[in-house]
Batch of 2 targets.
Target 1
Amino acid sequence: MSRLPQILNRHIVARSRLFTVEALDLRFGNGVEARFERLRSSLSGAVLVVPVTDDDRLVLIREYGAGVERYELGFPKGKVDPGEGWAEASVRECIEEAGYRPGSVRLLDTVTLSAGYMSHVTHLVLAEALVPASATGDEPEPLEVVHWPLDDWRALVDDPDFTEGRAYAALLRALQARGRL
Amino acid sequence: MSRLPQILNRHIVARSRLFTVEALDLRFGNGVEARFERLRSSLSGAVLVVPVTDDDRLVLIREYGAGVERYELGFPKGKVDPGEGWAEASVRECIEEAGYRPGSVRLLDTVTLSAGYMSHVTHLVLAEALVPASATGDEPEPLEVVHWPLDDWRALVDDPDFTEGRAYAALLRALQARGRL
């Protein structure tokens, strides 16, 4: 569509164990120059898995969110480890966090958190044909697993503990994939 | 629901012009201690505005996203400035970015980006009764404005330039508010 701005310079301006901040000096097509800061993320990104049982229940987890300092209701998710693809990471996270091994996983979409400030991408994955299974993840405490009827999705988006934008995106895509929208 | 972990210690571990990273040392209910890192954000958060014309068209903008290094198709948005509430910030961003003054704004929901790692909140706002208006924002180049029929929302979520999770959430809420879902 539009011509991309030219990247004049880039360098790291802050770094912690988890986060790396990069500054970009850009020249736009109209000649205006501006400095932008963004968070750098791993290129392989993360997966967010929507597990749906054969009788149309979503499998959610309730996990402490240090960002918001409360328990958040959401879908199993985690980063794609080195050497993994989205499918393997989805199966692993679904077992570790939800307690089910999916017989089938399907990529629904790939979303960003904040296109202006973060390179991070999250792959949205539908997981079906679930069979109980377990594996130890890296959580500091056991996660509560919550079954939620798919057709009660309006109550889910109204729940004050369900707040992540990408979880809404995953729900919308899962509703489309299961013929509800 | 669950008892909240105890925050034993918190301190800033990295800082740049835009980003502040905080480390939290937590003790969970089961006695396990763990260190978490998160991004700190302004408490007032951001607004994401869904402008809808009287004849059911969404008003979108196409803006360069430094995080993803391409032009992103999305809704007008921006941070809530000091002294503003979500309503004033929504009206201002709608004028600056979309070129319309809304006669009515309605808070649809408030979402997070990543509850585990960020405190950031975005207020999702429906803007209606639009009247053409203009004001200068802080953008380095003029934004392209795109009108999109609300009932073609399936094509919008399929568009590879529409990728932000919170934009999907806003679209879902706007479709509910306008009686489509």
Target 2
Amino acid sequence: MPEILCTPIGFVSSPFKERGDAPRQGKLTDEISLITLKEEYLPATLGLDEEKDIFVLCWFDRSERDILQTHPAGDDTKPLKGVFANRSPHRPNPIALTLAEVIRIEENRITVRGLEALDGTPVLDIKPFRAEFDTPNR
Amino acid sequence: MPEILCTPIGFVSSPFKERGDAPRQGKLTDEISLITLKEEYLPATLGLDEEKDIFVLCWFDRSERDILQTHPAGDDTKPLKGVFANRSPHRPNPIALTLAEVIRIEENRITVRGLEALDGTPVLDIKPFRAEFDTPNR
């Protein structure tokens, strides 16, 4: 098995500077964040201006990777759940999945609403939301 | 910037053996796949049996990482789009996001419907679907 080595496609600039500053999920904030892509990935944004809702996959570099169970929503009164059964930022591969709203795109700078990432967080991928694939059939 | 090194939490066993075998998206198949987690991650599945729909994040190790624009759905008659504006398996970090249906969980083996991953694909993360976070407000 070769190593799985990710490369940041860009970085987040956000008002959340430290772990305690960020909301639990992006949907719980109206704050604006900026994703600055590396210039070399500009061709990969062709058509992105037609999208309103995008999944942003970030690498939560300030998360813990060896925590396997947490209390949902950080609420100690709730029973422990495995991190694959909740949305904890702490997980073996701290890849955060956040549906954000595109506000503006200017070249390699994508302004979004609803990202909970800390300032400086590496971005791994951007995908357009597709209701037909991303919501249950039922 | 330290290296971003992911570790597979497990692997997919699926009927899709080669690139041409797999459907374009998991929702386009009723085929059953098996995710076998590494034993060490068993504690991270606590409560997963309560979930019906899970996002499976796979590392598409047979994708191309230097393709930045593709024709949507592999249809040459459609204009090129950047890979951040479509759901191509080819992207700088080939992390696939698929909403799959949990059929059965037996210890570290998770049987799901609707995964398009090739046989042997590494799995990076599993997250429960949460409509309040994973669908647009509008």
